[in-house]
Amino acid sequence: MTESRVIPPQAAVEAEPTGSDHPVIATGGRGYQGRIPMWATLTRVHAARRITLLGIGGCYKKDRDHVPHLRGADLFAFEWALNNAVPCLVLSADWDLHGRPAGPIRNSALSDRIRPQTCVWAPGGTGTADMKRKCAKFGAEMVEVER
Asked: Which residues does 65 contact at the CB level (< 8 Å), separation at least 6?
């Protein structure tokens, strides 16, 4: 099972979506390099809908004792959340434990927990496509990161 963390640390409890919340999942490739477009898109969504919880994926590295490791789109979304005081739930795929299914397992857990109303997505591969499909099951609005 994946572990979770809620950031920023001043959040007293893990945020769970309620009727008035606007939870968002941000997804995209680990090699994605568009920090400015990711930040601009999240800022636009936040201005229009007030993001109350941002969900992102991460992965565990063998040498880091199960500390979430973020790269690409996930890292940029995490940085945006910290800079905008938006609670951020990071669920990390445990590739050592689950092997190839780790990403889809993490994506299912994250989308089921967040129940996103919006999915902000950047270019990526099969993991990004999987997360988009899982967000669509909740009727999430799909917002492509600005180019």
From this structure: none
Q: Is the pTM of this model over 0.85?
A: no
Give me the numbers of helices (H) and strands (E) for the chain, helices first please.
Answer: 5, 7
According to CATH, what is the number of the domain 4-8+21-144?
A: 3.40.50.450
Cα gap 4→143, rounded to integer Å: 25
pLDDT tens track, the chain, 147 positions:
344 444 433 332 344 545 558 999 999 998 999 999 999 999 999 999 999 999 998 776 655 555 567 889 999 999 999 999 999 998 888 888 888 899 999 999 999 999 999 999 999 999 999 999 999 999 999 999 988
CB-hemisphere CA count at 13 Å for 86?
A: 30
